[in-house]
Specification:
elongated; four-stranded mixed β-sheet; alpha+beta
């Protein structure tokens, strides 16, 4: 075989052949290594952005600042937390912000919104997967946000292994609060998330209050509070006056000292008789049977107060007026309203006005509202369901026992009856909590939030337990599949 010198054509060709066959120096290998490293860096970078977003979503905090330039002192929460994270993690520091490619920093508002959409999608997907093919009910209410836009909140109520669960699944902007507009918004929501109307077994909508007198009372109280809070001087005068009254009452043994005392007040007696019912109806896992029992108890207490509660209330009010030097009109005198008298009106005494026109009418109004909403036939039917669980706390306990002992498969119709009773909406307290959260997320300083951005933020903020259970990999894959990205996950 002809070899020749070291620089002969043969030896040069042989060296080139060895270099070509050397996989470590192959151009595809070099490019592949570089691509793998880019993918690792991209995953680290995306994971950091998702981690920062988790913190801000769960706390209901804003992302952006007034000025996000490099030399700004008010870059916003997202960038500030990312800078802090880089300080304690060299791996994140090496691939983020100034060390990231100029067109792939993953910190822009669009990226933040895409991350929020991916998180919201995974949370809703987890809820709908949990419901699966089960029956459910829907709770709906509407309210205006900080930008005066009508928003409709949607909560789903369903039963999982005997447990009653209520989940917030979204908020929809509606042009008005007409029934047709709300129906279209609900239909659109069901269509987007693959929910079947055929599985819907109950609907709960919050109605306007008819208790105008009580509404006026709280409006007046609110006005008084605003007047006092507006001035530090008036607050100090009020505190000093109140402290003097308390000390005088303690010296006369008219007031017991100590913490946690349940002191009965006149306002509490008049309006607080339904407090137990109100508190119970606000529980997410409250079932309709237990609620009906509480309603019957409440109606009985109101009826007893109507029949025999006037004298004790009048004595308490009189005692309060005497102590505070308030003049009490004679109950036998003719009542005068201070307005121009009506010649055709029959004169009434003060006792008739206060006892019949006020005390009795307010109680009758509450009883009428309860009787109209919960008729005698419906109450009897639902209370019959309670006979299924005589030795348990409620039908929810019975449903859980059936699932635990696999009796739900043995007696499927009994379990179906329990499920239907459990998913019936009891109150819309869960929806009201959504609006409280909406005022935190979309506040005065963030009143220009888009509807989609607010919806995604609210879903993550309210459903924290599901959010915590979602793996970061699922969020990454959802984010990556939303659109074509310059970075690629390995």
């Amino acid at each position: 075989m002809h070899v020749g010198g070291p620089n002969s054509s043969h030896n040069n060709a042989w060296r080139n052949c060895e270099a070509l066959l050397n996989q470590k120096q192959h151009i595809e290998t070099v490019i592949s290594k570089q691509t793998n490293q880019d993918q690792i860096d991209y995953r680290t970078q995306l994971g950091a952005s998702i981690g920062v977003s988790r913190i801000l979503f769960q706390q209901g905090l804003p992302f952006r600042g007034h000025d996000e330039s490099e030399n700004s002192l008010n870059q916003g929460n997202f960038l500030k937390i990312l800078w802090w994270l880089r300080h304690y993690n060299e791996g994140i520091k090496a691939v983020t912000l100034e060390n990231a490619p100029e067109n792939l920093k993953l910190t822009s508002p669009d990226i933040q919104k895409d991350i929020s959409s991916a998180i919201s999608y995974e949370i809703i997907n987890a809820i709908t997967s949990d419901i699966n093919d089960s029956l459910f009910s829907i709770l709906v209410d509407e309210s205006r946000d900080k930008s005066s836009k009508e928003q409709m909140a949607i909560v789903l109520r369903y039963v999982d292994k005997g447990h009653v669960i209520e989940r917030f699944v979204g908020i929809e902007h509606v042009a008005d609060t007409k029934a047709s507009s709300l129906k279209l918004a609900i239909d659109d929501f069901f269509s987007r998330h693959g929910l079947s109307i055929s599985k819907l077994r109950g609907q709960g909508y919050d109605g306007a209050s008819n208790m105008q007198e009580i509404g006026d009372l709280f409006t007046m109280v609110s006005s008084v509070v605003n007047v006092m809070v507006a001035s530090s001087k008036r607050r100090d005068i009020l505190r000093e006056k109140h402290a003097h009254v308390v000390l005088e009452a303690l010296e006369n043994n008219e007031l017991s000292s100590g913490q946690g005392l349940n002191q009965d007040t006149t306002l509490k007696r008049v309006l607080g008789i339904t407090n137990d019912l109100s508190q119970a109806l606000q529980k997410k896992d409250q079932d309709i049977v237990n609620a009906m029992n509480l309603i019957n108890i409440c109606k009985g207490r109101l009826q007893r107060m109507r029949e025999s509660g006037w004298e004790s209330l009048f004595d308490e009010v009189s005692s309060f007026c005497d102590k505070n030097r308030i003049k009490i009109p004679s109950m036998d005198d003719i009542f005068t309203s201070g307005e121009r008298p009506n010649r055709k009106a029959h004169p009434i005494t003060n006792v008739h006005h206060y006892r019949v026109d006020l005390f009795t009418d307010v109680i009758d109004e509450q009883l009428t509202q309860l009787n109209d909403r919960f008729t005698e036939k419906n109450t009897e039917l639902l209370l019959c369901v309670a006979c299924l669980s005589p030795n348990l706390k409620g039908i929810s306990d019975l449903a859980q026992k059936m699932v635990g002992t696999k009796k739900d498969h043995t007696y499927p119709l009994v379990y179906l009856l329990l499920t239907l009773a459990l998913i019936l909406p009891v109150a819309t307290a869960s929806v009201e909590r959504v609006f409280s959260a909406m005022n935190i997320v979309k506040n005065t300083l963030r009143n220009r939030m888009s509807d989609l951005w607010m919806n995604d933020c609210l879903v993550a903020y309210i459903e924290k337990d599901i959010f915590n259970s979602i793996e970061e990999e699922a969020i990454m894959q959802r984010f990556q599949n939303m659109k074509t990205r310059q970075g690629q996950l390995f």
